[in-house]
Specification:
Order of helices and strands: HEHEHHEEEHEHHEEEEEEEEEE
Number of helices: 7
CATH superfamily of the largest domain: HUPs
Shape: globular
Oligomer: single chain
Helix content: 25-40%
Largest sheet: 6 strands, antiparallel, barrel
Mean pLDDT: 93
Structural class: alpha+beta
CATH class of the largest domain: Alpha Beta
CATH topology of the largest domain: Rossmann fold
Distance between the termini: 42 Å
Length: about 350
């Protein structure tokens, strides 16, 4: 129970289905003073929903596990100039690991969350599928789940869309029925990202240049930028230059140089293939080659591709039919067959 509307309605649906339900509120970040009130509000909202449903609310602090297993990795990736996805790591290390273990120790048979995803039993095992609401579906963030986790998990919102969830919450009188969806870093929340990272990682300013080596500005530290980025470059007032926006097309870590272009679709941003590591499959595969679809970021349509798998090394090479824009090391590529999530991997490089 996060205090949000999705987990609140999930709890109600489980009660309706005849389950014995208890809530659990996780604290995974030791807040600074300015964010403490937000966490306290989330806990208050979760408690009010549980009181309305007549169920018990447990609380647990996983801040040390979050720091050791999610946040330190997050910082290490940024220090290398990569762009990690903490939500995916958080699901793997916190929600479907330490939370699952804690719930089972409390005597639970299953855990349930407010994720928009579906679990189906097949002849080969449990498959992870897209939820009905394709605008909200979240299998991209859940691809690291295997058979053990899925066997102990329920996703009550699989067949619901967000509008219906809010309507149910309103009808039940939940205080959070109109609460805004959470964004920002998993469990850390919304904040000035650049200022936040400055607390943990040293940076040095450096040149911003064009592909022709023309100096057009100064960056604040390479780790603050990602491929394809448009906002926050602070390039302007250049003599004889077009007023068109600038885009990041390359990060040169060795020379601390940021390369930009005024072409959103600059050829340097497009590649047909990538290599990825830490391959995770929802269901076991034995084939070395696979034709399927994939996406390299959450808000993207699935794209046709061929995948060469090395199951021993847990690596893969993915070749797309259409070139992909801004393939970003540290992000995840997630594989699909129709509405089934096959698994995914961490992008190492575009090739």
């Amino acid at each position: 129970m996060s205090g949000g509307v999705d987990s609140s309605v999930a709890a109600h649906l489980l009660l309706q289905a005849g389950y014995a339900v208890e809530g659990l509120f996780m604290k995974n970040w030791e807040e600074e003073e300015q964010t403490h009130c937000l966490a306290a509000q989330d806990l208050s909202d979760a408690q009010q929903v549980c009181d309305r449903l007549g169920i018990k609310l447990h609380t647990i602090n996983f801040a040390s596990e979050y720091w050791d297993n999610v946040f330190e990795h997050f910082l290490q990736e940024y220090a290398k100039g990569r762009t990690p996805n903490p939500d995916i790591l958080c699901n793997r290390e916190i929600k479907f690991k330490v939370f699952l273990e804690h719930a089972l120790n409390l005597g639970a048979d299953y855990i349930a969350t407010g994720h928009y995803a579906k679990i189906e039993r097949t002849a080969y095992g449990l498959s992870l599928k897209k939820a009905k609401d394709l605008n909200k579906e979240q299998t991209y963030f859940l691809y690291t789940l295997g058979q053990q986790q899925l066997a102990k998990t329920i996703f009550p919102l699989a067949e619901y869309n967000k509008a219906t969830v809010r309507t149910i919450a309103q009808q039940l009188g939940f205080i959070n029925c109109a609460k805004k969806d959470s964004t920002g870093i998993c469990f850390i929340g919304e904040r000035n990202f650049r200022k936040f990272l400055q607390n943990y990682l040293p940076t040095s300013k450096g040149p911003i240049i064009t592909a022709n080596a023309d100096l057009v500005g100064e960056h604040e530290g390479l780790l603050y930028y990602t491929l394809g980025q448009r906002q926050g470059l602070n390039i302007g007032g250049i003599k004889n230059a077009s007023p068109a926006p600038w885009y990041v097309i390359e990060k040169r870590m060795a020379t601390n140089t940021l390369v930009v272009s005024q072409q959103r679709d600059d050829a340097k941003l497009y590649n047909h293939a990538l290599r990825a590591s830490e391959l995770t499959l929802v269901l076991p595969l034995t084939a070395a080659h696979l034709k399927c679809k994939a996406k390299i970021r959450y808000r993207q349509l699935d794209s046709e591709c061929e995948v060469a798998l090395d199951l021993t090394k847990r690596t893969c090479k993915v070749t797309f039919t259409q070139a992909q824009r801004a393939i970003t090391p540290g992000q995840s590529i997630v594989l699909y067959q129709a509405d089934e999530c096959l698994g995914g991997a961490i992008i190492e490089e575009a090739v």
